[in-house]
């Protein structure tokens, strides 16, 4: 996978960032300064608001299973209330994510207001600028979760479902611009791969896919996890491996990219550039995880 291509795509984002300043209208009356007591109360209220934000979690809330049959390979994965996939077992007894600290999730970079990051990577933590998740629907085979940023700029709706014949977890991420202005964003998916239950893997990526695998110590041999585009993707996009098991800043997602990785506790990233999201519009990225 070309490092030059990754740098070029990231440069597109940086060059698209715009900055805005809001000026007071002439003659606008300013509010009087707060008293010391009012200021202290405001600070306390702000701290309480931040403390009340839903924390990142790696606790399973929904578990989806496809038993081994003549037609289907065994698959079990689970999803948190925040929309993280924190277990991925396929075949039976072979885990690829839920080993030690569990890091999997999603990130948004708002390139319109100066590269503002929003992310949630389970045990890797979150950006603390999300409202509480809302479960829109859940069935025996899928869950639909809505999250809106605390500034109300973005709403991310994730639909995560099990595809039993393909032994895959399908992820649809629909990002809506809630503001009156056209905006630019990037959408990222990340997983700390511990293929075959082993923390150190070989990892790499291409345009559409990134993967990690354990070539020597797993059972069965060469157990791996693949993250890839699921269907047509008309956006500028790229996938790669990073040499850290911690989720990236979605505004600099290739900061730990160094090329093909061997025997590293690393992760995999899918990066998508979503330009010109109009007022009230939604753009959608479809991905999937599959064991191999």
Molecular structure report:
The chain has helices at about 5-15, 35-50; strands at about 60-65, 75-80, 85-90, 105-110, 115-120, 135-140, 140-150, 155-165, 170-175, 185-190, 200-205, 210-215, 225-230, 235-240, 260-265, 265-275, 280-290. It is mainly beta and about 290 residues long. The protein has one domain (about 5-15, about 60-290): Glycoside hydrolase, family 65, N-terminal domain (Beta-galactosidase, Chain A, domain 5), CATH 2.70.98. Strands 6-7-8-9-17-13-12-11-15 form a nine-stranded antiparallel beta sheet, with no helix packed on it. A five-stranded antiparallel beta sheet has the order 5-4-10-16-14, with helices on one face. Mean pLDDT is about 85; it is low at about 5-35 and about 40-50.
Show the helix and strand layout.
Elements lengths: L2 H14 L19 H16 L10 E5 L8 E5 L5 E5 L14 E7 L5 E5 L13 E5 L3 E7 L5 E10 L4 E10 L5 E10 L8 E5 L3 E6 L8 E7 L6 E7 L18 E4 L2 E11 L4 E10 L1
Antiparallel strand pairs: 1-2, 2-3, 4-5, 4-10, 6-7, 7-8, 8-9, 9-17, 10-16, 11-12, 11-15, 12-13, 13-17, 14-16
